[in-house]
UniProtKB/TrEMBL annotation:
Superkingdom of origin organism: Bacteria
Organism in which the protein naturally occurs: Bifidobacterium ramosum
Protein name: Hydroxyacid dehydrogenase
UniProt keyword terms in alphabetical order: NAD, Oxidoreductase
Record-stated family: Belongs to the D-isomer specific 2-hydroxyacid dehydrogenase family.
Length: 358
């Protein structure tokens, strides 16, 4: 990030503003997440130190004596990916003015080392805010786009077109792709009550697709409000043309999609995983894919990245992308703007839009 991209406040203006410290790992993430709009918003609300190069100073170790003065006067922390388990009780003791922590990621509380530090912050009334909703939007968009493309058999068509250098002797598209389309098709969501799942269901209402939703914490009426039908996992797996996974990586859900569930899928159906690799039993997935009966679009795998000898690399019925569904490139700026706007709200005494309860 060049020095020119960071606005500069006058000394008189900055003296009256609260102090912010940035904590990202690696440190250069701050320049990727904070776009021009974020800097402008933040510069109006707060002051922040710069390093010798003129870029915003980033604290990667709150216990480092070199950061002591900066940490001691901080009113706010802006944090994000990679800045985890950095703040313990001793750090909180060294930050008597800390009022809130804003995360350009899905969870602000990951910055705490343990429950003791978290409880101390809660007792002191330190507010938390995260950008999980903003980070989830690109994931929902990724899923929405791939659902439409998979139902059109876009990936198969693209391969065939390249292999034949055109159609060669012209292929009757209506015969070869007789079952493609986004009409009279069903999409099933697993763990549909997640932020991403809810957003995706909202987007799918713009289509003519039928939607089944598996979510134990959503009623039939709430599910219907998203244009979907509440279903159990077996129904989603067996009746959907596309099964989209939205489960978190927590021990009870690891391997929840195994050989039994995969065997329920329709011939020609597609498994779309933009959630976490470990929610799928990958040995079972590879075995099912090797039959050629189903397809998969995998933005996440386990392990990640895949070993170079994984059979998934060479399967014609598998699309692999390198964990790009979440905020990437310009999409990072939405999260940067969010933390700047949230901080400005807090400074102005307004309610936070994306408060994180803890």
């Amino acid at each position: 990030m060049s020095q020119q991209t960071v606005p500069t406040s006058s000394v008189a203006e900055s003296a009256a503003k609260p102090s912010v410290v940035f904590s990202f790992h690696p440190a250069d993430l701050v320049g990727k997440i904070m776009g021009a709009d974020a800097w402008r918003t933040l510069d109006l609300a707060a002051d922040y130190d710069r390093d010798d190069a003129g870029n915003p100073a980033v604290v990667e170790d709150f216990r480092d004596p070199e950061n002591a003065e900066r940490v001691a006067r901080a009113d706010y922390i802006i944090t994000g990916w990679g800045a985890e388990r950095l703040v313990d009780v001793s750090v909180l003791d060294a930050m008597p003015h800390l009022k809130a922590i804003f995360a350009a990621s899905g969870a602000a509380d990951r910055i705490f080392t343990d429950d003791e530090a978290k409880q101390m912050a809660k007792t002191r009334g330190i507010a938390l805010s995260n950008s999980g909703y903003l980070n989830g939007l690109p994931v929902a968009e990724y899923c929405f786009a791939n659902i439409l493309l998979a139902n059109k058999q876009f990936f198969r068509a693209e391969r065939m077109y390249h292999e034949q250098r055109g159609w060669g002797a012209w292929v009757d598209v209506q015969s070869v792709f007789a079952n493609v389309g986004n009409y009279e098709k069903t999409v099933g969501l697993v763990c549909a009550s997640s932020r991403i799942g809810r957003r995706l269901m909202t987007m799918l209402q713009m289509t003519r697709l039928d939607v089944l939703a598996y979510a134990i914490d959503m009623s039939a009426d709430e599910t219907a409000s998203y244009g979907a039908v509440k279903a159990d996992l077996d129904m989603v797996m067996s009746q959907s043309d596309i099964v989209s996974l939205h489960a978190p990586d927590i021990p009870p859900l690891r391997g929840m999609i195994g050989a039994r569930e995969l065997a329920l899928m329709k011939d020609g159906a597609t498994l779309l995983n933009s959630a976490r690799g470990r929610v799928v039993d990958h040995d079972a997935l590879i075995a099912e894919l090797q039959t050629g009966r189903i397809n998969a679009i995998l933005d996440v795998t386990w392990p990640e990245p895949l070993p170079s000898d994984s059979p998934l690399w060479d399967m014609p019925n598998v699309i692999l992308t390198p964990h790009i569904a979440g905020s990437t490139g310009s999409e990072l700026h939405a999260m940067g703007l969010n933390v700047a706007e949230e901080l400005a709200r807090h400074v102005a005494g307004k309610p936070l839009k994306y408060r994180e309860e803890y």
